TrEMBL record:
Protein name: Uncharacterized protein
Organism: Fulvivirga sedimenti
Membrane spanning residue stretches: 21-42
Swiss-Prot/TrEMBL keywords: Membrane, Transmembrane, Transmembrane helix
Length: 248
């Protein structure tokens, strides 16, 4: 079409028809501009299509990661509830008549209580989305906002887990090393009890730890830390479940 107009324009120049020449020249320019705009629009359509495909693939992978993290969080929620129950049981023993206390019960509760909980999260897809800009391609504003804020929640959980772990390592465990016969406890509840064998100090009664106010304080603190950690886990789980719904 442009070549055709060019030939007409050339003939008009030869015939000295300037007015018609200008009309055809303007028409030729308009066609060129229209062609450029169409090409740009087609390119934009292709880019939008590619971005949509990339976004859908990213969201599919992210959904799998979110579902894995929901399961991992549920496991730690169950463990945290068990630990809270164990601290409550030990605290109740302080108010129980000494004749009704059982050393084996104390050992079993302590074995649970000293465990350090940590959610083993998978975050590779989320981190990829943050680093490469894949999250920015997601059309939903609310979903993007939730994803951008997820790392902050993870950091808060890790911080709480560190606080609990430090309290166990620096406070509760040193006290138990001094006042508790670990081998007696391990002989009953450890998976390696067959190898570790029985204590050489059978006369030691682990119930003796109940005479120390420091031990009561340590268990009481363990209770409150575990309650806070459970709350963090449950809030995180709620966020993950909301993400799951939005990604489906």
């Amino acid at each position: 079409m442009i070549k055709f107009l060019g030939r007409i324009r050339y003939k008009l120049m030869e015939k000295n028809k300037i007015g018609q020449y200008l009309k055809y020249a303007v028409g030729e320019i308009i066609l060129v501009v229209i062609g450029i705009l169409l090409a740009l629009q087609i390119n934009n359509w292709n880019n939008e299509k590619n971005n949509r495909i990339e976004s859908e693939r990213f969201m599919d992978r992210l959904l799998k990661e979110v579902r894995y993290n929901i399961e991992a969080t549920n496991r730690e929620i169950d463990r945290e509830k068990d630990q809270i129950g164990s601290t409550v049981a030990i605290l109740d023993m302080f108010n129980t008549d000494a004749s009704k206390r059982q050393s084996r019960t104390l050992d079993s509760m302590l074995f649970i209580c000293i465990g350090k909980n940590q959610i083993e999260l998978k975050l590779s897809t989320l981190n990829e989305g943050l680093n490469t800009g894949s999250i920015a391609l997601i059309p939903s504003d609310s979903l993007r906002t939730l994803l951008y804020g997820l790392q902050t929640l993870v950091d808060e959980i890790k911080h709480m887990e560190e606080i609990n772990a430090e309290d166990i390592d620096n406070n509760l465990t040193p006290f138990l090393y001094e006042h508790l016969n670990w081998r007696t406890m391990d002989a009953e509840f450890s998976e390696y009890s067959d190898e570790s064998g029985n204590t050489a100090f059978p006369e030691h009664d682990n119930l003796n730890v109940l005479q120390y106010m420091l031990f009561e304080n340590l268990i009481d603190n363990r209770f409150y830390n575990s309650k806070e950690q459970l709350e963090e886990y449950e809030n995180f789980k709620n966020t993950l479940e909301l993400l799951e719904q939005m990604l489906e």
